[in-house]
Amino acid sequence: MAKEMKVCAEFSHHISAFWLPSYRRKTLETGSVGAGFLISPVAKSCYPSESFPFISKPKQITAIERILGLRESIPFSYKDPLPHSVGYSVSATLSLSYSFASLMHISGKPTIGEICRLAHIADVKSGTGLGDVSAICGGRGVVLRLTPGAPGYSVVDSIVTDLEKYTVITSVISKMSTSVMLRRLADSLESEGTRAYEEFLSDPSIEKLVELGRSFSMRVGMMSEELDRELSSILKKQDPLGYFVKKGLVVVVADKGETDSIYENMKAKFGNARKHRIMEEGLRIRFNQ
Prior knowledge:
The chain is α+β, with helices and mostly antiparallel strands. It has helices at 59-68, 90-106, 112-126, 132-138, 178-184, 186-202, 206-219, 225-235, 259-270; strands spanning 7-22, 31-47, 77-79, 142-147, 155-158, 166-172, 242-246, 249-255, 274-276, 283-287.
């Protein structure tokens, strides 16, 4: 008997600079509008595999199994180098990873749309995300989510810009689940998300995105005035494009030539830092891995 071919899916992570939740009766139409960055490193899911990678099932996996009527978990390999519950969209990459493995197991030939829609439904039903799956599945580089919903229902666009020119540096400062964040900030997300979205549409550029990310994160309460002053002070010599806070994540966008010095300053200040590339694509399928 021929050995079953291993197929792997790689998913970029997505960091939103601002967002406006949109809740509809239908899960496929629920989501968010906003804008953000696809970044490295990638999460990787491979099927088939000999084992299931979790002792305690994440909520999205349980949701996918219920949707598909699975009686047992599907063995698959899964690696994501970034931490969850801080703002890296790890919930979305996990939903996509298990959606991919489950549909490969069931049919062996799922479409990208099927994988992405199942992942979106799992994220929404689990309260772990609204727009990241659509951004990852439909965007390139700097992503604009124009209408909410799952892939195939949402409208996603991307800004034409020289992605090689810029770098993203992040530091984790706290943890907060998406469901808690959406509940605590519901009123301010509605007003400030609308304001940022309308302003960005008048000037859809990477410069405007970072500018709005800063004002949005301050107005909704994710970045304090004290933290803003501290970041301005430690980054003034490098003069980055800008910075903002997403949940528990400080995000700095800068020219590539300033990467190392900003990284060292961030690490010294917060005790941790990561360098990221802005990714040209959100997902990739690889065969015979």
